[in-house]
Design brief:
heterodimer; A: 551 residues; alpha+beta; Sulfite Reductase Hemoprotein, domain 2; Sulfite Reductase Hemoprotein, domain 1; 4 domains; six-stranded mixed beta sheet; 18 helices; 21 strands; 36% helix; globular; B: 105 residues; five-stranded antiparallel beta sheet; 2 helices; 5 strands
């Protein structure tokens, strides 16, 4: 966990007071909605279909149990008893009252949580690998650099009015769990041939109306130069990014139109001017941030304790363990993913009771720490393997032990037309139906790793372009239709999916997905050939034939 | 369901209402014939021509303190006289989410 200092606490508290005053002036009529809109957006407050929506940042996906209890408290006290974890390590509340928002923010501020820059044309919440600091083989904890970026970008005046929103993601593992290639700037921390650690910097990734996979702009930037290099990118974007057309305003469009070589040249020229400036991160600064992260004092524990051997006779426990328990850098410990994808449930939702219970379990079994992943699941990052059987029972009791992590029913979905004012079609009911269709765990395991991502509109909050199967809701003459893509992926081999054919009606989506999955099972070269590998090998055509032959 | 927030021209083809969200709590509301707001669609003022719609929208937008994001939405008038939402988006705003009982009302 990172411990905020006095400066952080003052900044957050001042922001609450400022927003309280702004809300008061809005409700009295002193501020018009036009004047207030940007102010509320800068504090994560949107207006959606039914009510205001409040988006709270969970920087680099790390929460303490105390913070999770505060999120539960907000759900219970100010909302309707639940929250929705998003694809960018935020939580959203769907029914918040504007008049009560300052109180909710004040309650969150007490535990160091805020909603600054969770909306608006500024640098957004810096996201990272939800296994940061505990993943085996990781170069170093990427949250140290995430935190440096968070501090540097928060309320940065030069980056508060960018042409459009701007998102960072960081990983320090060879397997990318942070989806860095679909971010405006993606950072991969690695060690070069000389043994020095630094970043491969990628730029111009993003989904939405015009999706692009990020391109490498610089293969290696030493850690000390990270801020100056990032600032050079942001300056070039700020200067040349389009402000005349919202659909062409993201950095991905600029990179595409200029070409990566020309863009890189512009950045290089800018960087040379600021490289050895106050932005240079000397080791004392990095160490200061590093020192504010606390790490558990792990015990020396066996890899295969008696408790685990005994529990291995229970097939239900074993099914869950094989699916949801992952290796940890420390022997005797494990990372446990908590599925927020129950059969028939809205993906990513958690009730206040579940959040409180998870916080208690984190205190008992995970050194008080919880992680949030972009796949809309939670994780307990430091679980002693001996505790797995008892933890499983507790997780199962509160409905977060569905053994479907990374399987077909572990669906990413945006709120869609049930909540969102931008949506054209519903996402959640499609996800719910699919989880029912694929509820059989044996079938899901037979299918293997398969990510279905659903967006209710072209803005792609559900990351449909990079789903192994992507589902995009569109509207035709007032009716919901869905375009299906296959072959996308968001990891280190990120790719955009390809459209398989004409859009299908709401009521046909689940049947089409079943057809695609059946086609895969018939076409795969061997049982361990993943869905995306089969699509890569054979292309879209065999799937298209299967889906449209009878339609 | 093209977002009504992108509504540029006012041209209605059937009975319509003006809807918005209440400023202090965001609740869904409809403009009434009495120049106020109601949380019940049944209380909404019905307009049938573009001129009527334009006038109702203008007075709704003028109440910037009471309501946010006012726009014109289609409705159906049943034989019984009951007012029903004219499309899925408005149905969801009026009746609530379609995702089942897992979400508390």
């Amino acid at each position: 966990m990172y411990a905020y200092d006095e400066l952080d606490r003052t900044l957050i508290n001042e922001r609450v007071s400022e927003f309280r005053d702004q809300v008061k002036r809005r409700l009295s009529g002193e501020l018009t909605e036009d004047e207030f809109k940007m102010l509320r957006l800068q504090n994560g407050v949107y207006l959606q279909l039914h009510a205001y929506m409040f988006r709270v940042a969970i920087p680099y996906g790390t929460l303490s149990s105390k913070q999770l209890r505060a999120l539960a408290h907000v759900a219970r006290r100010y909302d309707r008893g639940y929250g929705h974890f998003t694809t960018r390590q935020n939580i959203q509340y769907n029914w918040i009252k504007l008049a009560e928002l300052p109180d909710a923010l004040a309650d969150l501020a007490e535990v160091g949580i805020h909603a600054m820059q969770t909306s608006g044309n500024n640098t957004r919440n810096v996201t990272s690998d939800q296994w940061a600091g505990v993943a085996p083989g990781e170069i170093e904890d990427p949250r140290i650099w995430s935190e440096l970026l968070r501090q540097y970008t928060t309320l940065h005046p030069e980056f508060s009015f960018l042409p459009r929103k701007f998102k960072f993601a960081i990983t320090a593992s060879s397997h990318d769990r942070a989806a860095i290639k679909i971010h405006d700037i993606g950072l991969r921390l690695y060690r070069n041939a000389e043994g020095e650690t630094g970043f491969e910097v990628l730029v111009g990734g993003g989904l939405g109306r015009t999706p692009f996979i990020a391109k490498t702009i610089k293969p290696f930037v030493p850690g000390r130069d990270l801020l100056s290099y990032v600032e050079a990118i942001l300056r070039v974007y700020n200067q040349y990014g389009r402000r005349d057309n919202i659909y062409k305003a993201r950095i991905k469009i600029l990179v595409h139109e200029l070409g990566i070589e020309k863009f890189a040249q512009e950045v290089e020229e800018e960087w040379l001017q600021i490289r050895d400036s106050a932005l240079t991160l000397d080791s004392s600064v990095v160490e200061e941030v590093r020192s504010r992260f606390s790490y558990p004092v792990y015990e020396k524990l066996p890899h295969m304790p008696e408790e685990l051997k005994k529990a291995a006779h229970d097939p239900l426990f074993e099914r869950w363990r094989r699916n949801s328990v992952f290796p940890h850098k420390m022997p005797g410990y494990a990372i446990v993913t908590l599925s927020l994808k129950p059969v028939g449930g809205p993906p990513g939702d958690a009730t206040a009771e579940q959040m409180d219970a998870i916080a208690d379990l984190a205190d008992k079994y995970s050194f008080g720490e919880i992680r949030v992943g972009h796949e809309q699941n939670l994780a307990l990052p430091h679980v002693a393997r001996r505790d797995l059987p008892v933890l499983w029972k507790a997780l199962d009791k509160i409905g977060v032990a569905t053994p479907n992590v990374n399987l077909v029913s572990d669906i990413i979905a945006c709120p869609g037309l049930d909540y969102c004012s931008l949506a054209n079609a519903r996402s959640i009911p499609i996800a719910q139906e699919l989880t029912r269709r694929f509820a059989n765990h044996d079938t899901a395991n037979l299918i293997g790793r398969l990510h279905i991502n659903i967006s209710g509109c072209i803005n792609a909050c559900g990351h449909h372009h990079v789903g192994h199967i992507g589902i995009l809701g569109v509207e035709k003459n007032g009716e919901e239709f869905y375009q299906i893509t296959i072959g996308g992926r968001a990891d280190e081999n990120a790719e955009l999916g390809a459209l398989i054919g004409p859009a299908v009606k709401y009521g046909e989506v689940a049947d089409v997905i079943e057809d695609i999955v059946e086609a895969y099972l018939a076409l795969r070269a061997r049982p361990d050939e993943l869905f995306v590998e089969t699509v890569k090998r054979l292309g879209v055509e065999p799937f298209r034939e299967r889906v449209y032959a009878t339609r | 369901m093209t977002s009504p927030l992108e509504q540029k021209k006012i041209k209605i083809t059937g009975p319509s209402v003006v809807t918005a969200n209440r400023t202090w709590d965001g609740a869904v509301i409809w403009r009434t014939a009495a120049h106020g707001w109601s949380a019940e669609l049944a209380d909404a003022a019905i307009v049938r021509t573009s001129d009527e719609a334009r006038a109702l929208l203008a007075e709704s937008v003028a109440d910037d303190v009471g309501a946010v994001g006012a726009y014109i939405a289609p409705v159906e008038i049943k034989n019984s006289g009951a007012i029903k939402p004219g499309n899925l988006r408005e149905h969801i705003r009026s009746e609530g989410v379609t995702i089942g009982p897992s979400v508390p009302a």
